[in-house]
Amino acid sequence: LSLHDALTFWKHLIFFLCACVIAFTFTSCKKSSSSDSSGSYYLKANFDGSAKSFNKTVSAMKGNLGNGTYTLIINGFSSSEQLALSMWSDKDDFTAGKTFTLEALGGTTDNILTYAAPIGNSDPMSQWASVYDYGNVPESFQCTITEATSAYIKGTFSSVIYQNNNAAVASKTVTQGSFYAKY
């Protein structure tokens, strides 16, 4: 494992954990009359052909990080799992019709899909991402924004995600992903 690979892994892991903390902070303060506070908002996909929904709290956060760097995070929870899409851009171009693939910011980082189960577990075996830092695997990520307003964002996505370990390559194919998230 090279120093570059190790730094890349930690960069992705830290970004994912920060996204989780931010999402939890913003969503845990909301009052709700039911256990599903997201109403009609959704984040769902098939994992190796099995449908999963992350509709407990679905949110989108867009930010300007300065120096021409923008990010969009779409996050959803189930009772024991979390799914998040994290995308980068050198423009504020998270608009309808735009498709994001794995490579971002001229190859300096990656757009990623992350999955954690169970939530709150720090064991690397519970964390999955569309990038794998322990060897060469066929990495893929695609997210297309189909509708975007100042209040919400909709789109589709697919990816292959890998378990965060170097013992053996474990993957899940994520297909037919879709989201409708409130800013």
Radius of gyration: 16 Å
Low-confidence residue ranges: 1-7, 13-37
- Helicity level: 10-25%
Strand runs, count: 13
CA distance, first residue to last residue: 39 Å
Contiguous helical run count: 1
Mean model confidence by pLDDT: 84
Strand content: over 45%
Approximate shape:
globular
Please describe the biggest sheet, giving its number of strands, its sense, and whether it closes into a barrel: 11 strands, antiparallel
The helix-and-strand class reads mainly beta
- Multimeric state: single chain
SSE succession: HEEEEEEEEEEEEE
Characterize the structure shown:
With 183 residues, this protein is mainly beta. Helices cover 14% and strands 45% of the residues. It has one helix at residues 3-28, and strands at residues 42-47, 50-53, 59-66, 69-77, 82-89, 99-101, 103-104, 109-110, 112-116, 127-129, 140-148, 152-163, 171-182. Strands 1, 2, 3, 4, 5, 6, 9, 10, 11, 12 and 13 form an 11-stranded antiparallel β-sheet that branches. A hairpin with a 7-residue loop joins β12 (152-163) and β13. Residues 1-7 and 13-37 have low confidence and may be disordered.
